[in-house]
Amino acid sequence: MQMGFHPTPATIDLGNEPPLVAFEDRNGPPTRREVSLRWLTGTVLTGFTSIFLIGGALVAALDGRYTVEAATPPASGAQIALQEGKAQKGDRVTGADSQFATRQVIQVNTLTREGDAVHIQAKPYALVNATLETRRSNEMALKIPPFNPLKLVSNNDVLPDRSASDSIYAAHVEGEVTISVHDFPVNKVKVDTGDETEDGEIERIVRDSGRFLSDDKAEVASLPVVDPGRFDFDLAQQSALSNLSVRIAAENVSFVSKTDDNPAYSDMEERIVPVREKTSLKAVLLDNEASEEEADDITARFAEDYNIEEVQPGQRVRIGKGTDDDTGEIRIERVSLYVDQVHQGTVALSDEGHYVAAAAPTTLMPDAFAAADRMTLSGPTPSLYTALYQTGLDNDLPEPLIEDLVHIFSYDVDYNSRVKLGDQLEVFYSLDQESNGQPPEVLYTSLTVGNETHHFYRFRTPDDGAVDFYDEDGRSAKKFLMRKPITGGRVSSPFGKRRHPILGFVKFHSGVDWAIARGTPIHATGDGVVEKAGWSSGYGRFTLIRHANGYETGYGHQQAIAKGIEPGVRVKQGEVIGYVGSSGRSTGPHVHYEVRINNKFVDPNRIKLPRGRVLEGELLASFERERDRIDALLQRSGPVQNRIASR
């Protein structure tokens, strides 16, 4: 090794390749190798093709043609929550029709008291649930008596006692059972007092039988003299029911949860209007409760898209109505025009709220077309009275029963108003009396008008034995006072300050003036005693009636006071007490009607009127038990909805 010698490092061959340079040529033009004209052309052509295809589909969809189809509503929880059994899988559940009627026959155990005996037997009852008819039938119109409000308010025997049963017996009974309770004849039977029972034996008998006892005297009297279990060596292997010789009878009853959903609003109501004479399409729509705006929009669309402005005899207009989800108002959602059964054109309401040309309805209804020719569908819907009576006749309700229903609801509804989509009647009545030629008894009834439902239950009050109908809170269907003392008429002068038509200065008006023809009967608006009947200065011939709870009603300007109406006479609600005239300080025939509460004048049209009788205490508790039994029957025997297959 030599001092100061440094070895030379070996040479590294880097080759002839160009060096790798980072970030130097990024901003420069792409090289030919990086661009493929074939792939670029394919991408551009694919994009243009997609634009043309999607754009063409959108143009075709938005070319003024809409296919309108109501979505099938989902099944509610009440439909799925069936208490017994499981349904098999089937087709898709469809929505309920807007017009429906169901009728079921149910065996109900009723309890009737005859003296000291209690008679229990099963009677057939019918449960009818139907929407009110919104179309007038020419055939049924001949059977419906004309609406007579005078008879309605003047009939004192509004709810005659037609019922034979006192209440519903909750337990199941086969056949007929009569239970009588009598004092034990200790004076006529020789009682052997020699055989005395020890205290321990008595205690054991009471302990064994006590769990089956109740407060009913009939069950106490039915105790066996000798304990049957005393000689039964297989007692430990027998159930309590077998020891009591109780036989369980299976009942063919379907259970379904009751729902508050209104089925009448779950789908569109279809109305078919046959054209009788040449007229404009707008006139047909206005006659069938379309608004001016709806009629103008629909006719404009028919004229623009189908060149149709008038309808000819023989054509049929198919009008579909539904409910606005936001406002709850009834609106026209679809209108179709047919010649015989050949579709001519359809206009429907779009999602944006505009009427547009639409495809023909997918469902043809030849039976409905034929039925429409027999119905009077043009014009507004029938009155509530006509709809109620026609619905009753269509469901085979006896006419006396329909008249009872008219009386029951007369204090809560206006029978001159028009029936609306969704109005509904439910009645639960007996069938055995009908078969015997007697008017049937009604256990329960309800009437839905608009968004309000009136429920009434039949109940016999034990204190006086009277039968009446009460709402769910125990208030009588008969109101304490009626709103006005005449049938018909108009308000010519309201309650409050006004300029007197004769005196010429502003003066407080203590009542409401109802103008009507001279000689129209005036009815007492409530039960009471006549305090005054005669001439009273500016009132003219005037009658003042005192009612219960500090209420008084006055009737002025009468032409004549009815015969027999004098101070001290007791009058009934609806009884004729006078006749309309123009006596006293008056400018024309009318009746001045005023209401006083503790000598203070109140507006008859605004006060909240109390009902006839309100149950309290033990009577209310007894009524609530009867109401709950009826509700249980309705809950158990309600109409069976579409069954949903369980998971």
UniProtKB/TrEMBL annotation:
Its cofactor is Zn(2+). The keyword Zinc applies. GO terms for molecular function: metal ion binding; metalloendopeptidase activity. InterPro entries: Cell_wall_metabolism_enzyme, Dup_hybrid_motif, M23ase_b-sheet_dom. GO terms for biological process: proteolysis. The keyword Translocase does not apply. It comes from the Bacteria. Coiled coil: none annotated. Gene3D superfamilies: 3.10.450.350, Glucose Permease (Domain IIA) (2.70.70.10). Residues 507-604 form the M23ase beta-sheet core domain. Signal peptide: none annotated. The chain crosses the membrane at residues 39-62. Keywords: Hydrolase, Membrane, Metal-binding, Metalloprotease, Protease, Transmembrane, Transmembrane helix, Zinc. PANTHER family: CELL DIVISION PROTEIN YTFB, PEPTIDASE-RELATED. This is Murein DD-endopeptidase MepM/ murein hydrolase activator NlpD. It comes from Breoghania corrubedonensis.
